[in-house]
Amino acid sequence: MPVNAVRLPAAEAAKQTSSQNAGSSGASSQGQSALSECVTRTVRRYLADIGDTECSEGLHALVLREVEVPLLREVLAFHDGNQSRAAGALGINRATLRKKLAAHGLL
pTM for this one? Predict the structure, then answer.
């Protein structure tokens, strides 16, 4: 499933989502969202790759750090660079969004 920052018309996005859900595995039918399912697969693959090797910063901090940048970038792109709308979608204050964007070099 390709993911990019191009905004689809609502009808096309809904059509694409419904066709992807029709072809998905049984995990979604067990109450897992598509995002949760993706995170589950990725964390399992990561844990299999590292084995018993410890993550120096902790797995929780690593996942949050790795997810935050693409999340901010994609939500901002989805809202055509409008920081107020992006902050609203993220459920954070616009000033907090700007602070995070600056910290990650996205401003």
Answer: 0.64
